[in-house]
Amino acid sequence: MELTSKQRAYLKTLSGKIEPIFQIGKASLTPAMTESISDALEKRELVKISVLKNCFDDPRELADMAAERTHSAVVQVIGKRFILYRPSKKNPKIELPLAAKPQP
């Protein structure tokens, strides 16, 4: 799933109000954690995740891995936190700005 810079900026604005609901520790990204993140994305569409100091994996790599496993998009990675977005299949709440059409 690819986001335009306009859509990414909009999602960053929305994510400023939310707190991290998951913490990835030294066990890294387990299948159970991936399942929980996927469930949360279905309910909330936008999820902020924190990487603890005892996790030796790079937050950017973890964000990419989590996005790939949950079929979502990485909105932003800042320090030890990252934000994922995936539209809900049953009840979409967030309406993204439309992507600009390329000029001929």
Low-confidence stretches: none
How many β-strand runs? 4
Taking all Cα atoms into account, the compactness measure Rg is: 14 Å
| Tally of separate helices | 3
End-to-end Cα distance:
24 Å
Strand order of the largest sheet: 1-2-4-3
Which range best describes the helical content: under 10%, 10-25%, 25-40%, 40-55%, 55-70% or over 70%?
A: 25-40%
Mean residue pLDDT: 90
Q: H/E order of the elements?
A: HEHEHEE
Q: Could you describe the 3D structure shown?
A:
This protein has a 4-stranded mixed beta sheet, sandwiched between helices. The protein contains 3 helices and 4 strands; from the N terminus they run H-E-H-E-H-E-E. With 104 residues, the chain is α+β, with helices and mostly antiparallel strands. The model has no long low-confidence stretch (mean pLDDT 90). Strand 3 and strand 4 form a beta hairpin.
Descriptive key words:
about 100 residues; alpha+beta; 3 helices; about 35% helix
Topology overview:
Elements: H1 5-15, E1 22-24, H2 31-44, E2 46-51, H3 59-70, E3 73-78, E4 81-85
Parallel strand pairs: 1-2
Antiparallel strand pairs: 2-4, 3-4
How do you describe this structure in short?
The protein has 104 residues and is an alpha+beta fold. 36% of the residues lie in helices and 19% in strands. A 4-stranded mixed beta sheet has the order 1-2-4-3, with helices on both faces.
